[in-house]
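User: My instructor asked us to take a sequence, write out its structure as tokens, and then describe one feature of it. I'm not sure where to start. Here is the sequence I was given:
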Amino acid sequence: MSPRDDETTTVRAAGCVLWRPAPAPASPLSPLPPSPSPSPGLELCLVHRPKYDDWSHPKGKLKRGEDPLAGALREVAEETGYAAEPGVELPTARYLANGRPKEVRYWAAAAGPGAFAPSDEVDRILWLAPDAARARLTRPRDRDLVDALLATLPLGGPRASRSS
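Assistant: Let's start with the prediction itself. The structure tokens for your sequence are:
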């Protein structure tokens, strides 16, 4: 591969918009713990990358020959410490990164078991309501993914229809 080919080759990456049901608020009058039943709303996981000092969705470059969905799930586990159950594919982001075209495929993913451990790549995560996540995200293209996720989830959350 010539240096010129290297400059024009698309960088392929994948990630997830990781979500979980929002915890039910504890009632100050109830002696019982909050119910484990699904609560209205959800929280999104954002990662802080100290190298760029930004907040984004977990994502990363694919390994040579790696399936994009497998790579997205691997990146979620590496960056957040959580397993993820993939859902629908979300819009693909395409942009220039360091002068090279980059394509990032995203999936909605429900958070499974896990625990965060800081690393050089990701030093913090936050679980935020969608509006707070949208405000915290550094790049507008990442904010669009929040809207795409909300349009696909049939949770009893803020954007779900309440017919009956």
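For the description part of your assignment, you could build on this observation: The CA atoms of residues 80 and 141 lie 21 Å apart. Try explaining in your own words what that tells you about the chain.
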